[in-house]
Amino acid sequence: MSALTSVSGFPRIGQNRELKKIIEAYWKGNTTLDEMRATAKELRAKHWKLQQAAGIDLIPSNDFSYYDQMLDTAILLNVIPQRYQRLAFENPEETLFAMGRGYQGEKGDVTALPMKKWFTTNYHYLVPEIDSATDIKLNSTKPFDEFNEAKALGIATKPVLIGPYTFLKLARNPQAEELDYDKGLVNAVAAVYAEVVAKFAELGAQWIQIDEPYLVLDKEPGDVELFKSLYAKILPAREGKVKVLLNTYFGHIADVYETVNLLGFDGIGLDLNEGKDENLAAVEKYGVAENTTIFAGVINGRNIWRNNYAVSLGLVDALKQVTANVAVSTASSLLHVPFSTEGEDGLADDVRKHFAFAVQKLDELHEVAVLADASDDEKKASAELAANQALFDGTRVAADPAVAKRIASLTDADFVRQPARAERQKEQREALNLPLLPTTTIGSFPQTKEVRAERAKLRKGEITKAEYDEFMKNQIDACIKHQEEIGLDVLVHGEFERNDMVEYFGQNLNGFLFTKNAWVQSYGTRCVKPPIVWGDVSRANPITVEWSAYAQSRTDHVM
User: Fold this and answer.
1) How far apart are CA 372 and CA 511, in angstroms?
2) Domain annotation covers residue 253
3) Domain boundary residue among 374, 393, 412?
4) For 506-518, what is each residue's pLDDT tens digit?
């Protein structure tokens, strides 16, 4: 026996970014809608089966999205601004893509919804727009379709929804400074969620996960009442047939835990990586309702490092001092980590053993759950616990003595910038001689298919470094000429020589590691592959000097 295990969410892009590739092929007209749907279905099945094979009890469904879960939730609630409804697409995916990335074609011309960062992650969500014309109602069968899809494979899943409180707090009214949480709006949203809960009870779901990460933020007047009024209408829809897990992450809910506990949720998910002390203190102070299970979020959903089992087991044991009903969970969705360390042959075994991406975190979750219910003698005999402890007993990487020496030699004077700001401003005005409101751009010009093709040729050895550099110089020349022609004051060189905006710099620094396929979704189909900080960081080579000098030599403008 082991404690109940739960995964909050799983990466959807695929091990080799299959989802990104098929969606972008569809956008370009190189594949059909049915082929895109088929690939998505294959990925969902693969990801459910991976979790099933890892022994996970509560496997998420409806954590999949073609673009963004907040956008899916908006469509579920019929929060679709009229400018998108007027496009009158036949397929729901086309409306979703128009809202996510805009649309310019025979049906009209619309820009995308605004985009913001998802709390403190590098993921970005689409901001829903609710105005006086919005008609809140159940408008999609997606959550039910995916639950039934998994059920047909013999996998009982736990449907995942972004909660109504978080949705409303992140939505905006484009016609006003802030969204008015009037009774009609709150009741309409709550009614849809109640309808969804009742439908899942009818379909035979055992658990539903409702994510409310906004609960970890500071509360404004009326926030707690808004939260209570929503769930007072939603929870009765369970009718004793389905359990509701209120899942929180990216911080603690100590200031509202008592309220949450009294509402009678079947499960409460707590992030025990971020805000662990406050969450534990709240549980110890207010206790846990008799029929409530605490989902201990001990597997970090945001970093790539192996879990320290001893620390996680200590957190689970602390909860068990208060309640016997403790499940083991990921602290947040695994959306925010790469797919798997499998295939990362460029990392030596003694390095790779320190990393856990999404697939490896499934095994960690299962092992921690087994150990959480093991006796002291069983823990002492556990090869998994011993191997894990060995990772944390030694020093992962030796310090760089040169970096340590430079840090030790710092004085207070090194932290004071000279000359003073007012003096720098005066000198800059005189040296640059710019107009009062100078014009410029952010710096990056598009990485065109021609640029990417040339980089691929260099990587494959089909061209020399000199030939590659000459191509990049020609790109810079054209970029500069264009800016001069349109009359910009401060020019940029376009950054054509850079691959990934972070990796380019990391490759010229000591202390970084680089992966082959550790992609993480940033927004839509946009994925990033940041380097890994492995040891002390120092500059290995000049980074921008050569290209900056070349660019400035090609113009009399300020570069």
Assistant:
1) 36
2) yes
3) 393
4) 999 999 999 999 9
Render 60-107 in DSSP notation, one character per residue: EES---SS-HHHHHHHHTT---HHHHTT--SSHHHHHHHHHH-EEETT
Domain identity same for 74 and 214: yes
Residue 422: count other Cβ atoms within 10 Å of its Cβ. 8
Beta bridge partners of 108: 105
Are 457 and 321 within one domain?
A: no
90 is a domain residue:
no
Provide the total of helices (H) and of strands (E) in the chain, helices listed first. Answer: 22, 16
Q: Given the structure tokens 């094979």, which residue do they identify? A: 53
CA-closest candidate to residue 299, choices 51, 45, 516, 19: 51
Domain interval for residue 449? 401-553
Place of tokens 């069983």: 378
Would you state the pLDDT for residue 395? 87
Of 226, 230, 372, 238, which Cα lies nearest the Cα of 295?
372
For 440-465, write each residue's pLDDT tens digit: 999 999 999 999 999 999 999 999 99
Task: Please say whether the beta carbons of 136 and 192 come within 8 A.
Answer: yes
Contact 516, 459 (CB under 8 A): no
Number of domains in the chain: 2
Same domain, 408 and 519: yes
Which residues lie below 8 Å from residue 553, measured CB to CB, with a gap of 6+? none
CA max distance for the chain = 77
| pLDDT value for 501 | 77
Whole-angstrom Cα distance, residue 404 to residue 416?
21
E strands along 257-313, which residues? Answer: 267-271, 293-299
Dist. CA 155–CA 60, nearest whole Å? 10
CA dihedral angle for residue 467, residue 469, residue 470, residue 474, rounded to 10 degrees: 140
Q: What are phi and psi for residue 87, nearest 5 degrees?
A: -70, -25
336, amino acid identity: H
Neighbours of 308 (CB within 10 A): 15
d(CA 285, CA 287): 6
- What distance in Å separates the CA atoms of residue 374 and residue 536, rounded to the nearest whole number? 39
Task: Judge whether 98 lies within some domain.
Answer: no
**326 shares a domain with 219:** yes
Name residues whose C-beta falls within 8 Å of residue 325's C-beta, 6 or more positions apart in sequence.
288, 292, 293, 294
Q: How many CB atoms lie within 10 A of CB 396?
A: 12
The two tokens of residue 60 are 């998420």
CATH number for the domain that contains residue 518: 3.20.20.210
C-alpha span between 332 and 77 (Å, rounded): 24
Q: Kind and range of the H or E element at 108?
A: strand 108-110
Q: Measured between alpha carbons, how far is 77 from 99 in angstroms, rounded to an integer?
A: 14
Of 327, 359, 393, the residue that ends a domain is 393
At CA 152, angle to CA 150 and CA 157, rounded to 5? 30
First and final C-alpha spacing in the chain: 66
Q: Which residues in the chain land under pLDDT 50?
A: none
